[in-house]
Amino acid sequence: MLPLLLYYFAAFFKLFKLNLLLLLVTSSTSERRGSRAELRRSSVYSTMDLVPQLEHYANSLPRPMTRNRPSLETLRKTFEVSGIRCMLNIWGVILFLRLSWITSQAGIVLTCVIILMSVTVTSVTALSISAIATNGRVASGGAYFMLSRTLGPEIGGPIGVVFCFANALACALHTVGFSEVVRDLMREFNVVMIDSVNDVRIVGVITVTILLLIALAGMAWESSTQMFFFLVLLISFANYLVGTVIPPNTEKQSIGIFGYRGDIFVENLTPSWRGPKGSFFQVFAIFFPAATGILSGVNICGDLKDPNNAIPKGTLAAIFWTTLSDLVIAVTTGVCVVRDASGNKSDILTGNSTDGCVGLACNLGWNFTDCIHSQACPYGLANNHKLQLSGYPYLITAGVFAATLSSALGFLVSAPKIFQRLCKDEIYPFIIFFAKGYGKNNEPIRAYILCYLIAVIFILVAELNTIAALNSNFFLCSYGLINFSCFHASITNAPGWRPSFHYYSKWTALFGAVISMVLMFLFTWWAALITFCIIVFLFGYVNYYNKPKINWGSSVQAGTYNMALSYSVSLMGVEDHVKNFRPQCLVLSGPPNQRPALVDFVGSFTKHVSLMICGDIILVGDRTTRPHDATDSLVKWMNKRKVRSFYTPLSAETLRAGAKNLLQVRSLFEMLYLSVILSVCLSICCCQQDATKTLSLSAANPIIYSCTSFSGFIMKT
């Protein structure tokens, strides 16, 4: 019995040791994974320090490793933060206050074309921004941060200014839309403060002031308010769909609502242009702001926990659902509502006679001829801009309030955060004042006030269609440059361009950039010219007048290197010709600031169009006393003196050995120096062309080296 117990005890002890060993291995593995996760954390915007992940090379492994699928909770949170914010900004004033009017003007077919063309531009832009967002860590600053780190401060700075202005203008657009609805409600109750225009201005200024106070209260209040608006919007959409299937009563028929009918659908298929805005591209320009909320999640990327994951998924999901809702509303409105209606119940036809009756409503038992002839019909698709189909009318009004206020609040929050990031980069010194943040979340209160003032200025315009056309122009400019930055980073094959989002193409990005620029001029050509002039002015200021001392490793630098390398290699296959001769000089100047006369003399005939290299021979004994920043200071000295030259320091045992080494390295591809210029302390004007003797090197007689391959010039000192 005892041996049996000992046997079981030994087996149990072995099993315990095995489990303990397995536990230790698992713990060490998790620690290694944790350490690898720590290593993969990038710096502010560095893609070079990312440790390669084994999962990225899964296809090259014998047994591919697969990532775990994200949980439903993770997907829900991702869409909740980024996707809902994008949807709220896309579902704005145009959806509720202009889409039915656009359907009456362009017809169902062209309205769907307008929606799909807008979605094409925004979808391509979303793919480009997803690629840029997943190319490294994304800090606060949204689209500006990505563009500036991709294209450099010279181009990113002007786009940051334009994009901030576009967001402030969008805030004014949605606030004016909200004010128009409030004014119409006041008219229903016979309440007028001054007149129709000034009432919009007063309500708009009060509204944007309240939104500013909500934004200043912090992101928690703003997020809670946005979630409330989102729920109201969903209820409003459900109410609209219910209204399309409820049989219309006499009151609804008097305002042009007849339910789903094939004859109304056929009538509204084709366009019916009316008024000064009656053209395809003018209507397109008015609709396009309805698709411009796709960067809302990007603009608050500094507040997202995982922007690399949230931005692509949330943005693309928001585009899909908002496009579907736009198409459904455009088609159902065109199927159920006629273009003109009087709203007068007495216009119902009592008999079967339709003599003298004009319009499709005559076949439906209504005579709206009088208001059609006088062009004074207050109802119908062409006249009442607000959505009319609903189960309960005031829920549509609540949806308008939610859509306009949520979009206005979203843009009012986005613009200051982008502008704060731009000011912190110190690209434009005169706006650094707005970079200061307050509180634990670094809230840009000064930038909030500036964007608030810009929004108030455009609210005082009180014309929704005019503001919408301007807003379309600025957003198209931003979208075009986002797509161009993605294309440029891809085409230059920069080592730092390694996005984890692979569902994009450089050619679709180029298409998005080109179509955005074309649409800018087709919408409002004068506004497009003004926008380009502003960008050119800001670009010139940064590039030529006040170049910032920052280096973000932009794709412009990669493109410059590629071009220089390509052109230099191409010169190797081209023979020299006397017509293209340029003096190419090696100047044995030593430190250039010690022989300024020699440097200026050579610079006077190279004239910024020829190759000039200043060679500096550093003796071994002088290395320790040479400052570490000597090369940078000498290059700055030549730049300040406006001398276009390379500076090449060379270490050598003796002056003779250093000079020979410089002369033997004769070519940079085909750009070989044919003239050697130096300064000696001799009263000599020139050296003989066939001289083969090399003078002794000393302090009094530095160097003269000449052979048949070089023409030597000696400057008297």
From TrEMBL:
Principal localisation: membrane
Keyword Transport attached: yes
Location of the protein in the cell: Cell membrane
Top-level taxonomic group: Eukaryota
Similarity annotation: Belongs to the SLC12A transporter family.
Keyword field contains Transmembrane: yes
Membrane topology designation: Multi-pass membrane protein
Keywords associated with the record: Cell membrane, Chloride, Glycoprotein, Ion transport, Membrane, Sodium, Sodium transport, Symport, Transmembrane, Transmembrane helix, Transport
GO terms for cellular component: apical plasma membrane
Organism, scientific name: Kryptolebias marmoratus
Domain Amino acid permease/ SLC12A: 84-586
InterPro entries: AA-permease/SLC12A_dom, AA_permease_N, SLC12_C, SLC12A3, SLC12A_fam
SLC12A transporter C-terminal domain boundaries: 595-666
All residue ranges annotated as the Amino acid permease N-terminal domain in the record: 43-79
GO biological process, one term: cell volume homeostasis
TM annotation in the entry: 6-26, 108-135, 155-179, 200-221, 227-246, 280-298, 318-338, 392-412, 445-462, 511-542
Example of a GO MF term: sodium:potassium:chloride symporter activity
Entry protein name: Solute carrier family 12 member 10, tandem duplicate 1
Pfam families named among the record's database cross-references: AA_permease, AA_permease_N, SLC12
